[in-house]
Design brief:
Elements: E1 2-4, H1 17-24, E2 25-26, E3 35-40, E4 45-50, E5 58-59, E6 75-83, E7 85-90, E8 93-98, E9 102-105, E10 112-116, E11 122-129, E12 137-139, E13 145-149, E14 158-164, E15 175-181, E16 187-188, E17 193-194, E18 198-205, E19 213-219, E20 222-228, E21 233-236, E22 241-246, E23 251-258, E24 267-268
Parallel strand pairs: 1-3
Antiparallel strand pairs: 2-21, 3-4, 4-11, 5-10, 6-9, 6-11, 7-8, 7-10, 9-12, 13-14, 14-15, 15-23, 16-22, 17-24, 18-21, 18-23, 19-20, 19-22
Length: 279
């Protein structure tokens, strides 16, 4: 498991593009038959990807850096199917997962593994420290709380699905959903915002090989960007804005952990403010 340390906003101006990618971007998550994991000191999230080979299960190991008896001894876990279909097996119970389905796994689950029905099945894993045990619950895409937001005139018309949230499937820290800009729309989370009480991670998918996503981060007056491919994840510290635009429409998973779970607890930033206070 790779370790990523936390970042102060003052560091951003002196970081090269390569250093920004090394600190915040997680690429090559989905290697057939393997599980890749990153431990982020931003709200102590564990992020990972697994792409099982059909007919062979991949187990969620207990990483030594966690100093735990098993992975979910002190943690909760969300498993999201980004493509294909398969199963997550939790303490002997098999849960089917198709594209955009989410399985919440509560603290105390001991044995967790992943199986694929078809080639190129991809599961994204997100985990946070948990102080309460909530039941393991499957949230199919069709049962997520679904709303529409944005305007076609601003190219940010999008469908927002909330899978894990304080008014739905409960968790200790995790808040998770999937947003998909509609055809002809490319911006996400625009106008942008921050939420200083939570770290957020984006995972971009449904991008063809020839398409890219421009993800922006930073503070007003000092924005940086990274160019991402299908399946890339990006860590957004609590102090950073997080918004992006694609060369076409796409989907992205967003997952948060931190002090609270209030979806609307965010500090809005107007488009003119992106250039700084004098704009």
């Amino acid at each position: 498991m790779e370790i990523r340390h936390a970042t102060h906003p003052d560091e951003l101006s002196g970081m090269s593009d390569e250093q920004i990618r090394a600190r915040f971007v997680i690429s090559d998550l989905f290697v057939p038959g393997r599980l890749k994991a990153v431990y982020s000191h931003e709200d102590r999230m564990v992020l990972g990807g697994v792409s099982p080979i059909p007919g062979t299960a991949v187990a969620l190991e207990n990483f030594a850096d966690l100093r735990a008896e098993y992975f979910c001894q002190r943690r909760e876990l969300a498993i999201t199917a980004l493509s294909g279909s398969g199963h997550a097996v939790v303490d002997g119970t098999r849960y089917p997962l198709a594209r955009m389905d989410v399985l919440y796994v509560g603290r105390g689950a001991r044995d967790i593994s992943f199986e694929a029905d078809v080639v190129d099945t991809r599961f994204f894993l997100s985990s946070a420290v948990s102080h309460s045990a909530y039941p393991t619950t499957l949230i199919p895409a069709a049962e997520a709380l679904t709303t529409e937001t944005g305007e076609q005139e601003h190219a940010n018309r999008r469908i927002v699905r909330k899978h894990i949230h304080e008014d739905g499937v409960r968790s200790s820290q995790l808040v998770l959903g999937i947003t998909a800009p509609e055809p002809g729309n490319v911006w996400n989370s625009m106008p942008p915002h921050t939420h200083d009480r939570r770290t957020e991670v984006y995972v971009y998918f449904d991008l063809d090989e020839g398409e890219r996503l421009f993800h922006f981060m930073g503070v007003p007056g000092q924005t940086r960007h990274v160019v991402l491919r299908n399946g890339d994840a990006v860590i957004s510290p609590a102090w950073s804005m997080h918004f992006g635009a694609g060369t076409t429409n796409y989907s992205f998973l967003w997952v948060m952990a931190g002090e609270n779970q209030a979806f609307a607890d965010m500090d809005q930033i107007s488009v003119p403010q992106l250039a700084g206070a004098a704009a």
